[in-house]
Specification:
The complex is a heterodimer of chains A (about 450) and B (about 180). Chain A is an alpha+beta fold and about 450 residues long. Chain A is built from 15 helices and 20 strands. Chain A has helices at about 45-50, 80-85, 95-100, 105-115, 120-135, 140-145, 150-165, 180-195, 210-215, 245-250, 315-320, 385-390, 410-415, 415-420, 430-435, and strands spanning about 5-15, 15-30, 35-40, 60-70, 70, 90, 170-175, 200-205, 220-225, 225-230, 270-275, 285-290, 325-330, 330-335, 345-355, 355-370, 370-375, 400-405, 405, 425. With about 180 residues, chain B is of the alpha+beta class. Chain B is about 40% helix and about 15% strand. Chain B is built from 8 helices and 6 strands, in the order αααβαβαββαααββ. Classes of the chains: A alpha+beta (about 450), B alpha+beta (about 180).
């Protein structure tokens, strides 16, 4: 039981402006797996989820194909779609309370799909609905209440009960945990586990990265409608390859750590597409990214280059114009011209001796661009030696080092000036590391 | 350029200050001058060896905040040397624990801090939290010549630790060099 989305695009039309919500997204939910779809608000997560059910609003224009159990879904056939919704694919919507009918009791709403689609009689349907709600931790006293008489978490759990009551093949969860506290999250976890064990598929849409990493199997990172990276969910924080994935991971607060939050520079809300020329003439489109300061921040340029380049810290000229492929890097799929985060420094088997004293013993170390690595240890453990070798201040006895993918020793020998400009060093003892003959002002021309 | 670099590290930019010599500055100001000096050419890679050990906590916080802002804005890569694990945990993406010239543990900072694998890392964390190392053999700092460098002090040391040096192996999203970590 699988769900495959292939080269899927969605444009919301609005006069001669339109919003590019999803562009050529390719993701798949495999049998017994949970795919976590993450990204900032406005990246098109919910649009993709709704598209699978054919629930996009009338002004949405789509391209691409969606396959359920390897058979393409025909979105023009409303009868077929109706059979598919809720029985084969169901969805828990984001704005929980609004999707329930305020005039019906919760138990009636949970029972409705059983009567309408499952063809059960009302009495047994109510009985099953009651059991399903009970399963979700809603005591019987709640079952006969109206939505407004329930708490946000109870509503969310009611919706979950409703979504799984017909045991569909694919379950789409849109922000299922945003209204739930840690304890209530366990109901969602239980459903995810149960579905995986039964060989069904789950599309988990969330901005809760910790939840996605823990309960997802695969992960797709969406940015302004494009899939930037797909990867095993467990590697999201430990081995991100796209710069956006790393920046997103760094923005998320996690329990039990530590590091102060880092964000992503700049902003991006959504993508507007303008259309020029009359309908019968050749039309051309151009798009730009909506940001708070100005609507035309990146001009009326045709939609080329990488969408993230304006906020990316490692963007080069080519990123502005080149077409960016979605290609395999290691075991991930990445949409990045530079094939992911570049390497800043790499040390291989570096060792150093002072006389008979071994200060550093065949050490390997890899640093990606934009990363902060701290070396911790007691005095005399070789921290400074390693740092000075990394900075090109000191030479190693054995081993190999590269800086920005170039042989560092070669670079130091041939072109000391450029490499020295790229590496800044703060030495341990400030009083000894600067000449006493310079004033504060004259120190700078002489580093 | 100089003035903006000085402003970045919260130092005065008036003329009297610019004309001062290093011996006329206090240690904290001097340390900040050194940091500003390393950053003035906008490097892509910064190596900082105990950059804040001479600063008082309030300035230390400001300087670290500035470095982290640079990381977000310019993608500055940093290698940070510190003996203070409490400080390192506040800023690091990844962390490497060193002992006698060996990297003994390397991985994502949050993982290492929440679930340290190497006994030496555990010891460092416990001492940072003020837990007394009771019942531990506090042998002299001699480094085992052929076995594991931490063996003389390791509370869990076995025979194999004395005979064979462990190698750095990958497991559970991190690298650890210890015979007792089987994963």
């Amino acid at each position: 039981m699988s769900l495959k989305i292939k080269d899927f695009s969605v444009v919301y039309r609005d006069g001669d402006h339109s919003i590019q919500a999803v562009e050529e997204a390719t993701i798949s939910v495999e049998r017994g797996r949970c795919l976590a779809l993450v990204g900032e608000s406005g990246s098109g997560k919910t649009t993709l989820g709704k598209a699978c059910l054919g629930l996009l609003p009338g002004n949405a224009q789509t391209a691409g194909r969606i396959f359920l159990n390897d058979r393409e879904i025909d979105f023009s056939n409303e009868t077929l779609l109706n059979q598919l919704r809720w029985q084969r694919i169901s969805m828990v919507f984001q704005n929980g309370a609004e999707t329930l009918n305020p005039a019906y009791r919760i138990i009636d709403q949970v029972a409705e799909p059983l009567v309408e689609k499952g063809g059960e009689n009302r009495k047994s349907a109510l009985k099953r609905a009651s059991a399903a709600l009970f399963d979700m931790g809603l005591p019987e006293a709640c079952h006969r209440r109206y939505p407004h008489q329930l708490s946000g978490g109870q509503v969310q759990r009611g919706l979950l009960a409703m979504a799984v009551i017909l045991e569909p093949d694919i379950l789409i969860l849109d922000e299922p945990t945003s209204a739930l506290d840690a304890l209530n999250k366990s109901f969602v976890v239980e459903i995810i586990q149960r579905y995986k064990e039964r060989g069904k598929g789950i599309l988990l849409i969330t901005h809760d990265l910790e939840f996605a990493v823990r309960h997802g199997d695969e992960m797709a990172v969406l940015y302004l409608g494009q899939v930037m990276e797909t990867l095993p969910a467990g590697e999201m924080l430990s081995n991100p390859i796209h710069p956006y994935t790393m920046a997103l991971g760094r923005s998320y607060p996690t329990m039990g750590t530590a590091r102060d939050l880092g964000g992503i520079r700049g902003d991006a809300f959504y993508r507007l597409v303008h259309q020029h020329g009359r309908r019968d003439e050749a039309q051309y489109h151009h798009s730009h990214i909506q940001i708070p300061e100005s609507a035309h921040a990146n001009g009326h340029a045709p939609p080329t280059g990488c969408l993230f380049q304006g906020r990316c810290t490692q963007a080069i000229e080519a990123c502005k114009t080149g077409y960016v492929n979605f290609e395999a890097v290691q075991n991930h799929q990445v949409r990045c011209l530079r094939r992911g985060i570049v390497s800043a420094l790499s040390l291989k088997g570096v060792s150093k001796k002072y006389g008979n004293n071994t200060a550093l013993n065949g050490t390997d170390l890899e640093l990606k661009a934009g990363e902060l690595l701290s070396l911790v240890g007691e005095t005399g453990s070789g921290k400074t030696t390693l740092a000075m070798i990394a900075g090109g201040v000191m030479a190693q006895d054995h081993g190999f080092r590269t800086f920005e993918d170039r042989d560092m020793d070669e670079w130091l020998k041939n072109d000391m000036g450029t490499i020295a400009r790229r590496i800044g060093v703060v030495y341990q003892n400030p009083a000894e590391s600067i000449s006493h003959r310079f004033t504060c002002m004259t120190l700078w021309p002489n580093p | 350029m100089v003035k903006s670099a000085l402003k970045d590290v919260h130092l005065s930019t008036d003329d009297a200050f610019l004309k001062r010599y290093p011996h006329e500055l206090n240690m904290g100001a001097l340390q900040r001058v050194c940091i500003a000096r390393a950053l003035v050419l906008s490097p892509s890679f910064l190596i900082a060896d105990e950059p804040t050990s001479a600063l008082d906590p309030s300035v230390q916080a400001k300087v670290l905040k500035m470095l982290l802002d640079l990381q977000t804005e310019r993608g500055l890569t940093m290698l940070f040397v510190s003996h203070d694990i409490a400080l390192a945990r506040k800023i690091s993406d990844r962390m490497g624990i060193m002992l006698s010239g060996h990297l003994v543990e390397l991985g994502r900072a949050s993982l290492i801090l929440s679930k340290p694998a190497h006994p030496y890392t555990k010891m460092l964390l416990e001492s940072a939290e003020g837990i007394r190392q009771e019942g531990r053999k506090m042998l002299p700092d001699e480094v085992a010549s052929k076995g594991c460098p931490y063996f003389p002090r390791c509370p869990q040391g076995r025979d194999i630790c004395m005979e064979k040096p462990p190698t750095l192996r990958e497991g559970g999203h991190r690298w650890v060099s210890c015979h007792l970590v089987s994963e």
